[in-house]
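User: two proteins, same treatment. go.

Assistant:
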Amino acid sequence: MAAGQRIVIENCSIATVDAHDTEYADGYVVIAGNRIESLGAGRAPEGLEDVVRRIDATGHLVTPGLVNTHHHYYQWITRGLATDHNLFNWLVALYPTWARIDEPMVYAAAQGSLAMMARGGVTTAMDHHYVYPKDSGDLSGAIIRAARETGVRFTLARGSMDRSEKDGGLPPDFAVETLEGALAATEATVAEHHDASFDAMTQVAVAPCSPFSVSTELLRQGAELARRLGVRLHTHGSETVEEEQFCKELFGTGPTDYFESTGWLGEDVWMAHCVHMNDSDIAAFARTGTGVAHCPSSNARLAAGIARVPDMLAAGVPVGLGVDGTASNESGELHTELRNALLINRLGAHREAALNARQALRLGTYGGAQVLGRAEQIGSLEPGKLADLVLWKLDTLAHASIADPVTALVLGAAAPVTASFVNGRQIVEDNRLLRVDEDAIARATRAEARRLAEIAGR
């Protein structure tokens, strides 16, 4: 939408997810250009100029767009495999297949992953891509192109691995990069694609894969590179009991202490999973401002355990939600993680007091924005912030008897997305993507999944 033009959304419930959790039972939102200009109770102000569209949102809840903080798009074309494995066995089973991906496969997989998330209310997405086989093409460029075409705001966490089987790691020897090659390629990706502006649509983070697939030197030099370039850092941490044992055997310390020794705690860092964290670990994350991407469905699928999210939040740790790769969360949708985060955490020590519906919504919106370092721009509905928002339809049979709209969204059936806006531009209408062809994407991902299976000899 052109600067100065306005869209007015009226007659809706609104959950702003601002610092005071302000909500309006019947309110309006005015979008001007790519920003939220105003919002409040009742009707929109009279006399607004250059209004190009008015939306009657009766029966809808308007929220900030969902923010996904951890994913692996390439896994879209290996869904439904190794369904009864724990993390390490699952990785060993799938790495030989993943090591044979190429640019067309990664592009199609990114299209499928992004389409599924965007249809379900995600307006800011990320991808932690760390498998770069030799001569496989421009994988980072393919992922970024798919995100641009879908219309979502995007962070590429440019991953890497240099610890293969011969060095005591899990990936096959032919699936990893050299230390020097990984660092050089990561720096080149930042130089080509990272945008540091307020309304940036594409950003890049430095993201060695995990303690058991990268060398200590790659972690250390990766952190130094990120801080020299002024970008964020991302990796997997404390996902399983086996990972903790691996770190103690190899490094003589637990994951959190190991990360701190390599420069991997800080306000510019976020880690995926963080399931097996003791009180000292949580205190270290809180002290340093290190963020967490909580992935409840994947953690359950791989039997990793229940992350101590209530304790993290109480300590002041920034926490967002992640889909994780679709080979460990086949649905590939973030809005289901709102519900799963609440339910799974209630199975933990805090039981019914673990999380409530509004805390779950905050994890999926403002919490995610914090974790990605973008809380000043997105994650809540406030004047001056970017116009990334979703209209959830809550007046159908599925939610008819739930009076509270936030409870309906989080605990009810998956709510249809009537409209989704990113940077003031609509990308979803009536649960269908506007900028890409969903049916063509489905055909492409099926074809690439078959091609990969044939190459890998499955």
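Protein 2:
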Amino acid sequence: MTTLTQHTEQLSATTLLRFATAGSVDDGKSTLVGRLLHDSKSVLTDQLEAVEHASRSRGQETPDLALLTDGLRAEREQGITIDVAYRYFATPRRRFILADTPGHVQYTRNMVTGASTAELAVVLVDARNGVVEQTRRHAAVAALLRVPHVVLAVNKMDLVDYAEPVFAAIAEEFTAYAASLGVPEITAIPISALAGDNVVEPSSHMDWYGGPTVLEHLETVPVSHDLTACHARFPVQYVIRPQTAEHPDYRGYAGQIAAGAFRVGEAVTVLPSGRMSTVTAIDALGESVDIAWAPQSVTIRLADDIDISRGDLIAPADDAPAVTRDVEATVCHVADQPLTVGRRVLLKHTTRTVKAIVKDIPSRLTLDDLSQHPAPGRLVANDIGRVVVRTAEPLALDAYADSRRTGSFLLIDPADGTTLTAGMAGASFAAVAEPEAAATDDAEWDF
């Protein structure tokens, strides 16, 4: 029988890395991604021909590799990235899902989308301009989203004569800033995306640099699969009751394990009710197994007949999250319509959706200097701030710092289903002082 340790060892040979690119406008993010795909032989012939044709039509003699990711017509015409472009490629050492995110301030919400599931963020800096406002903004977003690995790619080194002092000064400034935000690991790499220096192949122009190329770092950066260290969480998606002659008493709870592992015989708690039981069986792909781990989709059976439905959370009895109706979180507002105090919303957390009211917006974060603007009263598109939300029903919510999967949520417009806000429960990064919540009058609330 396959053990958890054996499964972890098997995954290590074919790990998947999700990463996102970020940086200021025209720092060369799309060109870097295009170069990465091109030089790693991950571009199909017809894709390259289309890029060559589009480049010639724009009067360029050589293929513009940025067009491999800038897929929208407006992006091609304006030469900018507007939406998040996802690309999938693989090398013999690892599989990758990359998100090429926009650099413009007004598309900060798109960067949040691309980095929300990333395990690594590549932040580009133009060697001629150094660390600028948008560089700091994207570093702060990566820190807020708890991206565990950040790569500083100092691009366009060919335009500064591959000078080591230029690279060293930028790397020192960025590393100090990112470290102050709590970013756990920062790797600086000097590159030229246009010429291909240190992207896939080592550069012959920078013999003073002895570190990895971008691709080498992406292939070797550790991706944690220590599943036993995660808080085990199982959001129930569907209750299975066949009630057939073959399975007259079968009652199973189906869903995808969000984190950690579950074992037969383990004592568990069902939230938000708090009822306790024991795992009697785990069904995976039509077979009974003794153990299952994230992100497997399984059916869990319990010893007791408990009223469980979609949206309930099964967790170990000795490691269950707290249940609350008052959610304090850092959020990024992604809708064009503002989020205001008193706004009625739907809060979606894993498989559970409940009614809620925005109780307070204590502050809005100014990412340029990480200062807090107190009591703004509203958040508009691309704003990041602190909110306090009161829910109609209790939620089993982890802190985002403990679990990105079960510590995140969405606020949704109940009228048309539009996503309004992406939230991260608990404290933001340590460098930002937490504001005190303003006093409110609960008498006017519906719940």
